[in-house]
Specification:
Number of strands: 2
Strand content: under 5%
Radius of gyration: 24 Å
Shape: globular
């Protein structure tokens, strides 16, 4: 039979998983909560940390896309990024017809501002230079226009 301390820890974990913050539970017979030992609590929701690099940006975008039903694969996103910006989130095209019209293509997937605004996905930054926002908006546009970023093999 488990000792009382094990019951207390099990109860604290159960409450934490249920979303109830537990700082400390008093020991049996203690006169105040300060008599209890403090253990770190777990939160109900875990946050995925992504590396701040091309791999992390693509993986985070894929997670956001999955939440919004936007199709696309890692390989297709990577292929298009390498063609469009060589992986530079601050890339800007100041020479093509879009730039001549005053709306240069920006970011990893070279999205113009009106397209970014129209296909921006909630939950991402409203900044075309933000890598995750740029990838997600571009994939949303590609899904609308071509069915998926997987079907894009050239400038779009």
């Amino acid at each position: 039979m488990p000792a009382f301390g094990q019951h207390r820890r099990r109860l604290a974990r159960s409450l934490a998983v249920a979303g109830v913050a537990v700082v400390a539970l008093p020991l049996f017979g203690a006169t105040s909560a300060s008599a209890a030992t403090t253990e770190p609590t777990t939160t109900a929701a875990s946050v995925t940390a992504y590396p701040d690099n091309l791999d992390g940006w693509i993986r985070e975008s894929l997670d956001v896309m999955a939440q919004h039903g936007i199709p696309g694969s890692y390989d297709a996103i990577h292929r298009n990024i390498m063609r469009e910006s060589s992986g530079n989130p601050y890339a800007i095209n100041n020479w093509d017809s879009n730039a001549a019209a005053g709306t240069p293509s920006k970011g990893l997937l070279q999205v113009i501002d009106p397209t970014f605004a129209a296909y921006h996905v909630p939950g991402t930054a409203f900044d075309p230079y933000d890598p995750v926002a740029n990838i997600t908006a571009a994939c949303n546009y590609a899904a609308d226009r071509y069915g998926s970023i997987d079907n894009v093999f050239g400038a779009y």
